[in-house]
Amino acid sequence: MDYFVNVTLTGLTQGMIYAAFALALVLIWRSTRIVNFAQGSMAAATTFIALALIQAGASYWVALIVALASGFVLGAIVERVIIRPVEGGPELNAVIVTLGLFVAIQAGIAIIFGSSFQSFPTPFGVRGFEVGDTTIPLTPTSLYIIGSVLIVMALLVALFRFTRVGLAMRASAFSQEVARLLGVKVGGMLTLGWGLAAVVGSLSGLLIAGGTFVWPAYMDALIVFGFVAAIIGGLDSPVGAIVGGLILGLALSYVSGYAPRGSALVNISALVILIVVLLVRPGGLFSSTTARRA
Amino acid sequence: MSDLQSPASTGQAGKATDEPPVKATAGGDAPSGPAATGRTFLPQSTLLRHLLVLAVCAVLAVLALELSSPYQNSQLATLSYYAIAAGGLTVLTGMNGQISLGHGALMAAGAYTTALFLDAEEPLPLPVILLAAVVVATAIGALVGVAAARLHGPYLAGATLALAVGLPGLAIYFHDILGGEQGMRVRAPQAPESFESFIDAVSGNSASSTKWLAYVGAICLLITYFFLANLVRSRIGRTWRAVRDQEVAAELAGINLGAWRVLAFVVSAAAAGLAGGVLAIVVRLAAPSGFTIVLSLALLTAIVIGGLGSLFGALLGSALLVFLPPFVTNLGGDLGLDQTEAAQLAPFVYGVVLIVVMIFVPAGLVGTIRLRWMTRKAKRAMARAGADDTGSRR
Amino acid sequence: MPDTHGSTAMSAAGGTATTTRLLEVEGLTSTYGPVRALDGVSLSAEAGRITAVLGANGAGKTTLLRTISGLVRPVAGRVVLDGEDITKAPVESMVAKGMAHVPEGRGVISELTVDENLRVGALFRGKVDRSEFDRVYDLFPRIAERRNNAAHTLSGGERQMLVIGRALLAKPRVLLLDEPSLGLAPRIVAQIFGLLRQLVDSEGLSVLLVEQNARSALSVADVGVVLNLGRVVVTDSARTLMADEDLRHAYLGF
């Protein structure tokens, strides 16, 4: 029983990270109809910036803020310089551009920061809380992960629901031409959207790195998990992305925890889940559309 | 076939790039590069023409392999497996408009199959083993293809990315058989005695094992490209292009889109399987680290540089994958990077190239040149040929 | 309301012979690839007047509006709004200059609610008093009831009301309307056109109305411009055009 609870909590914690990453993908998809395959590399880049700061003696929190801020800048620059020319063009071109960015940034990280494994700190302990004389499988770190993702999500909801910029961003995402005719500076909104998405992506990168090792390609699996989570949720829906992330987190945690040598099966399980979802409910679990066509 | 396609070039053909429709019509005779220049005195039959080109290329291959150093031999062997895989990917992405990031994983399937068969006490003959590699990759490709046929663009890219990240994990799961992270050492296949006498007769060079592997690669490459070139020019190739450019029209014409997409995936998976087999014997190792996502992206770079949809372009792009890394790595060394850092310059360049090509010359090298040539020809042919121009601008 | 378009002054101007040419289009030429969608089109829209642009499908009507508002860049010609050359001005700036464009297919942002749609229309003005929204809702009680519903639940007529209301929140001096009657029941069309007339008369608005439904359009318009294959065939008062049976048969289909 304890084991089950433990595995479930691990799944939920990981799921929150996947959810955040999926949310970042969905934010970009909604506004530009592009899946940003470079998101993982971009997040890895900011994590390495944070690591460099921490190694230079900065506190975790300073490094976190700087990493998130640099994520924003990176996202905005990427949209302005690299994505803008292929926006609205053939979808394959945009896919290839984000893939190019994926490798280029990953290789860039290796050139600048080296390709060896480096340990990344976590600000909180990874030992479970003690209640009386039993240790419950809930750690300060997992609380930190869940809490910070929830805070970021709440901030995003507030931004989109209650602010003028948020409204302008939504209008730009849903209907670029109409928004432009109504005087919304759509270009700026898209840049802002990419920047914000990169912040959320960076956060998930920093969270998953906490207490473990990072190397230039450490986000490769998370791109897949985030993508699968977003697809489960329908790729268009922020709420779907979050639910998708939690479902995937739990599923993978159970595979890892219960299947023999399950940890080696995690990646392939994500693939299987993805294919099943795409074949059975191509529009994701939360949509009514059935076909996915250009 | 040309009149069927021309309307798509300007219209909604939002898929791949807008060029391939134009190129595809031109591309009829282009897959076999040399044939395009001198086709006036070449036989009319496609098959005969391709056979002639095949013979010429075989002679060129022997010349190249005999006039180069052992190191260059091994580079050419590397070129052959990149080019085989890139050729298959060209059929899928260029001809049929589907993208795949999973070809690295399919190559892994071929490589591990080859490694397993060569591991036997008395290994089967090499052609049989390579065929087995093809069969295994094809089977996986068919499975993936069935799922992929319903997807497009980013969905397909994501699904095949999951394949690329997920499949090598099986090698770790079955580490007793497949060697886990360390991978499997591959026993070098023995060259037959006839090979020795052949080399002796041709050049008098020593018939080393490196040379033998380079020949195996070259033979596989020639067979693959001969097969693909004929396929592309056949009714099958035309249907693929119709499926890519005129999805709705093709469906209305009674073409089963899904089945044709699966077929494209299967054909390109077969090529990837063969490429994996060649890789295994050339590199002598099948390990998960050899089939990372970077491999799949390198293949994508090759076909994008070459211009989506051209076999000659895929070959050219693959050559770049082989000859560029040592060049930029040296460059990095000169710039003061240490060895591991400099080794990362190649993937860095792949990424930058993908971005730059897509932004500035989305038709790729071969595609752009051919497009220019086509446009000139078209302008000469008819006064109102503005359609090509609009195509090239996107 | 700013004094520049004080309603009384404008409607007075519209009523007299000295009309103000708010929008002028000179020799506008736009191409789609090799096709010339517009071929040297010149026309003007005056304050307090409805100018109907008529013609068959493919005559260049929609391209005309899209070129005026900058969505399509012309290869030749000028667009002048109240003396200012706006040919090269960014699309986003048009509405602040006093020109609102309601695109073909209505341009409702269907994922947003009715109220959010209206708020987007007023975004560029900064803080806007709630009473202005209430005025739009007073004008269109039917959408007022649905203000918190997603816009995709609206009927065609309600959508048209929403986009016109949204355009009005931008306080335009020139309103470009692309096929507002498309797909609407005649009763609704009459209602919307009637309301448009009222607005033009009371606020001194200038409307450039693109319509395929020439009969309805001419019944509400002051001036008619007939386009054919990207060129202006004739410009005259709506009444004269209505009376010209040959022209109606040849270009207007009724």
TrEMBL record, chain A:
GO MF annotation: an example: transmembrane transporter activity
One CC-aspect GO term: plasma membrane
Pfam families reported for this sequence: BPD_transp_2
Record membrane topology: Multi-pass membrane protein
GO BP: amino acid transport
Family label: Belongs to the binding-protein-dependent transport system permease family. LivHM subfamily.
PANTHER family the UniProt entry points to: ABC TRANSPORTER PERMEASE PROTEIN, BRANCHED-CHAIN AMINO ACID TRANSPORT SYSTEM PERMEASE PROTEIN LIVH
Name by which UniProt lists this protein: Amino acid/amide ABC transporter membrane protein 1 (HAAT family)
Species assigned in the record: Blastococcus xanthinilyticus
Lineage: Bacteria, Bacillati, Actinomycetota, Actinomycetes, Geodermatophilales
From TrEMBL, chain B:
GO molecular function: branched-chain amino acid transmembrane transporter activity
Protein's membrane topology: Multi-pass membrane protein
Subcellular location: Cell membrane
Membrane-spanning ranges: 47-67, 79-99, 126-148, 155-174, 212-232, 262-283, 289-306, 311-328, 348-371
Top-level taxonomic group: Bacteria
InterPro entries according to UniProt: ABC_transp_permease, LivM-like
Pfam families listed in its UniProt record: BPD_transp_2 (PF02653)
Alphabetical keyword list: Cell membrane, Membrane, Transmembrane, Transmembrane helix
Biased composition (Polar residues): 1-12
Region called Disordered, residue ranges: 1-35
UniProt keyword Disulfide bond, yes or no: no
One GO cellular component, as annotated: plasma membrane
Name of the molecule in the record: Branched-chain amino acid transport system permease protein
TrEMBL record, chain C:
Keyword Transport in record: yes
GO MF terms, alphabetically ordered: ATP binding; ATP hydrolysis activity; branched-chain amino acid transmembrane transporter activity
InterPro entries (alphabetical): AAA+_ATPase (IPR003593), ABC_transporter-like_ATP-bd (IPR003439), ABC_transporter-like_CS (IPR017871), BCAA_Transport_ATP-bd_LivF (IPR052156), P-loop_NTPase (IPR027417)
GO aspect biological process, one term: L-amino acid transport
Name of the protein in question: Branched-chain amino acid transport system ATP-binding protein
Family from the record: Belongs to the ABC transporter superfamily.
Keywords, alphabetical: Amino-acid transport, ATP-binding, Nucleotide-binding, Transport
Domain of life according to the entry: Bacteria
Residue stretches making up the ABC transporter domain: 23-254
